[in-house]
Amino acid sequence: MDILSMTIKDAAIGLKSKKFSSVDLTKAYFDRIKKINPTLNAYVYEAKDEAFIDAENADKRIAKGSAAVLTGIPCAIKDIFCTKGIRTTCCSKILENFVPPYDATVISKLKNVGAVFLGKTNMDEFACGGSNEHSCFGPVKNPWDISRVSGGSSGGSAAAVSADLALFALGTDTGGSIREPASFCGCTGLKVTYGRVSRSGVMAFASSWDTIGTFAKTVEDAAIVLNAIAGHDERDSTTPNKPVPDYPKNINKEVKGLKIGVPKEYFGEGIDSKVREIVMAAIKEFEKAGAKIIEVSLPMTKYAIAAYYIATPAELSANLARFDGIRFGRKPHKEGKDLYDYYLAARGEGFGDEIKRRIMMGTYVLSAGYYDAYYLKAQKIRTLIIKEFEKAFEKVDIMISPVAPFPAFKIGEKIDDLLSMYLADALTIPINAAGVPALALPAGFAKGDGGVASSGAELPVGMQIIGPQFSEELLFQAGHAYQRLTNWHTMRPSV
Ligand code: GLN
Asked: Which of the residues are catalytic?
């Protein structure tokens, strides 16, 4: 087997049996990154020196017989995670020189098990975007068709895994930033229950919506990664002290008898007909395997985007207030005549257009006189969405829907049409509002209906399996059952 097309599971077996070393594996990845990254722009920083030190240490640990499954496994990290001594920019000019003095909790956890960090991946600035076009390093190209977007905001991580530039990659998902790029690039992406994975040391976008998750080639690999990163952290008070199951252990459980909900609003207007067909065919596979299919209704879905674009900019504007060019963020080139001028220059030069737009929206909806009309109302909608999901999960075990209404669009196609860009997350945002987990996985290929999506290459289409809070184990079982029955997840782009 080609060393780059292996899964984590295969690679761990190869490492243990000394077929190859972690140094060999790391070298193979850097060779491929050298060849492919100039085309895709998935990595914004390659941590070569550090990675080879990690790989040598991993090989020693393997030789001693004390290896974990992830020991010596090369991975990529979204540039939003603080990595000690390694530049972390959030793909924003305001952080272009930032080298964190500490590691995020998930980074320390991955270091403890001996994973090898290849580098930092491209993203929309401060995770605000769904196409990776809002990055100070330029867009990530979709490995299936380089004239198209990778999705965002974790576009670099998704493209890296799909194009065999890493064995797995970390991302964040506030409104769809793991699942949408996973769907556009054709890999598996996990958005966890809010609080399942520590956010400590991860740059905050909207703190009550942000979650940390992973991209992988298979559901089983995603389960392996979650095992290493999940759990309570005293540095993040939103991580409950709830036991972490051994996720891969019971992954072979059958789906027979499982009650699967099909939320009808997720298959309606605005959904590309081919996308609908593909996800319906996937649901049929579950039915053939003995699952019971039940239609459910989530009518509050239609308010989710509106609530999200009030609540999350409000949190973003508060979180980004600290970037003043003095305490946080780089100095402006023109300092001005007083402190006020200095702030304007630092923030004016440092933030991109989308961030400025969201800061303005966020401060507006929080301002006196508007708070009740907008922010409070959005929070009430969020509560109704949470209740609606709870009710649906009284009837069904999991739900299945498309991830995005359409496959990857052309670079530049939606950049001046905000509403249409924001609609890409119509089916992912409600899940973040409810705080529940969802697993995105490839379910087929489409050229899409009409519009620009109908030209060019076949593009991956993803579905998401949604579960109640802390049901990640069940999501892995269902996703793995599907990947045993189908081979969409084994398709690779020819880039
Ligand atoms: N695309 C959404 C946005 O622009 C979601 C981003 C995210 O999940 N970080 O906000």
From this structure: 78, 153, 177
pLDDT of residue 335: 79
* Maximal CA-CA distance, the chain: 72
Calculate mean pLDDT across residues 149-178: 98
Cβ neighbour number for residue 314 with a 10 Å cutoff: 23
The CATH superfamily label for domain 8-261+399-490 reads: Amidase signature (AS) domain (3.90.1300.10)
Position 457 pLDDT exceeds 90: no
How many Cβ atoms are within 10 Å of 334's Cβ, its own excluded? 11
Asked whether 450 and 420 are in contact (CB, 8 A), the reply is: no
> How many helices (DSSP H) and strands (DSSP E) are in the chain?
15, 13
Q: Residues 386-417: pLDDT tens digits?
A: 999 999 999 999 999 999 999 999 999 999 99
453 pLDDT exceeds 70? no
Q: Where are the domains of the chain?
A: 8-261+399-490, 301-381
Residue closest by Cα to atom 10 of ligand 1: 128
Q: Which of 213, 226, 218 is nearest to 481 (CA)?
A: 218
Beta bridge partners of 215: 169, 189
Tokens of 62: 């393997």
Residue 173 structure tokens: 């998902």
Q: Is 177 in the pocket of ligand 1 (CB under 6 A)?
A: yes
| Closest residue CA from atom 5 of ligand 1 | 175
